[in-house]
């Protein structure tokens, strides 16, 4: 008898997550996406409660990471910022993340592949719509915004950087599913890597393109590491030459032309350090940074520096500890695909503040839930399929 561990999604759970992934990519769908995600968590808890005969299992082994996150949020709050609109926005999204993370204390057995495949389907569909809209010069009201400055696609997001950051997740997942799994049906992943790559390039986002290159290089290096043959080496060299030609002849010249008037992120970060030096230990709390420095933006476009500004060295150390525990959890599970998805987010946090702005954090919280409560993407595919069939037969 096979021990049931990872269950298949019911059709209504699948549809709820489909709505969530589609909504998060639509201009007016951000709250629908998080609401759908919370509904999915609630249904999962109810299913588990019924399945266990009216008992809800509390997972004590995950309580440390949840308490640590709560301490991080509390360390960023200052009572004197309660009338600051930026404070309210940032605290709201951090609270949503806390509510979602709370689910790791009660749920288990999520099917990581099935849930992340929904991300692939929806990002491919929306990617095609965005590309067609861009080249036809026809934005769709309330769904797709017109290109930023007439050149950089935005999709249904708040800006091109956010669109690029989001699409890095399905791109990284699809690329690694192609390289590291033995599935026969890989065309959906191939198509997704192509579509999401086009989207990332057309955003002309510095952080997005750097993350895209990083994902490509690391994934291919790991793939070829223990499989060194003349044929594979020639294949790698051929791929590298093609990519370099594309970069040299199209991407880099267009990138510099599009970004020639863009502001310097380095200057922005330097200005943020003005108030950080004044309160290095406990920070200023959540809120509008421009009120305490000469920076014009409300955030420094760097998640780690923002944590240090808001909570000082104490909050930054707590946050880094939080990230290290998650990293250790992934290493123990030996799940390289989730590791790459996780690193993708950490890189994007160097160029934006996704945790306090909401939309891209949707995928981050889903990923954390799957890291602690989901199936391992790196284990044999036939084992998961067999367990799913057993689950269907039992239900």
The radius of gyration is 21 Å
Largest sheet: none
Specify the overall morphology: globular
Helix and strand composition category: mainly alpha
| Helical fraction | 55-70%
Total number of strands:
0
Q: Could you list the spans in which at least 5 consecutive residues all have pLDDT below 50?
A: 380-395
Question: How would you spell out the order of helices and strands?
Answer: HHHHHHHHHHHHHH
Quick check: average pLDDT?
Answer: 84
Number of helices: 14
Distance between the termini: 15 Å
- Please indicate the percent range of residues in DSSP E strands (runs of 2 or more): under 5%
Explain what the structure shows.
Helix 6 runs antiparallel to helix 12 and helix 10 (265-278) crosses helix 11. This protein has helices at residues 11-23, 30-51, 63-75, 85-101, 112-136, 160-180, 187-203, 206-225, 230-258, 265-278, 303-333, 336-348, 361-373, 381-394. The protein has 14 helices and no strands. Mean pLDDT is 84; it is low at 380-395.
Features:
mainly alpha; 395 residues; 14 helices; disordered C terminus
Task: Give a brief outline of the structure.
The chain has 395 residues and is mainly alpha-helical. It has helices spanning 11-23, 30-51, 63-75, 85-101, 112-136, 160-180, 187-203, 206-225, 230-258, 265-278, 303-333, 336-348, 361-373, 381-394.
What's the SSE blueprint?
Elements: H1 11-23, H2 30-51, H3 63-75, H4 85-101, H5 112-136, H6 160-180, H7 187-203, H8 206-225, H9 230-258, H10 265-278, H11 303-333, H12 336-348, H13 361-373, H14 381-394
